[in-house]
Amino acid sequence: MRLARGSVKQDNAFADNNDMANCIESSVRCSRHAWLVCALLLAVGCATSDYTRVHTALSRGEDIGPPFGEHPTDYRVGPGDVLALRFRQCPDWNGTYRVLPHGCIVLPKLGAFPVSGRTPDEIATLLREAYGDAVGSVLVQVHQYDSQHVYLLGEVQGGPRAVPYQGPETIVQLIQRIGGLTPDADPSAIRVHRPFGRQGEEEILHVNLVTLILEKDRRQNIYIQPYDRVVVPRHAWARLRDCLPKSWAQFLNPATKPDR
To answer: How big is the CA angle at 132 (ends 129 and 134), to the nearest 5 degrees?
Structure first.
């Protein structure tokens, strides 16, 4: 009986030791998890802070101004665009005229009149020369842009899509026009892929929207050109959140995100 009682006491001691070891191991795991969650929440807080400040500035319509020393080229009309024409002495001719696939608009008395590849001011000058003094002054404006596009990819409001190129426009003005970025965007790592760069090959321009807007770094506020591809990548914390269990991911998807 003594041996049995000693064996029971020994077994109880082993069980207590195992319970203690399991408790310590569980505490260590919880501690590691807690530190990891805290680190992730800190990263989310920093990223959300950048997004909030950029989003607020964009919502207010702040115009940073174009890069110093850069002058955009005027918009050149192409097939698909719709022009609004105003003739001072011939108001019956006032109206909208679509540029046809062969680059012409059809005008009273003149018929097909070539306009593709010209600016609105150039077209107005040519119309005055063609009609003479009978029509008086002529005003030409682009009523609808539909001949050239800019391509949006990544974390932009409304999703990836093509939007009309509307003439001289900076990267900030474009982002304001399309409605801004999504909360998962990384505004510090925007890329503009330009199919026809200065050397005739594709050129990649990097834009940090955080420093551009918050530090007024106008050098990065580049002019958008026709057929540019604007890529807004997903933030690293958002990509990590997608790989975590749902019980963890909910902590990285705070309900306090700013209104869009």
So the answer is: 150
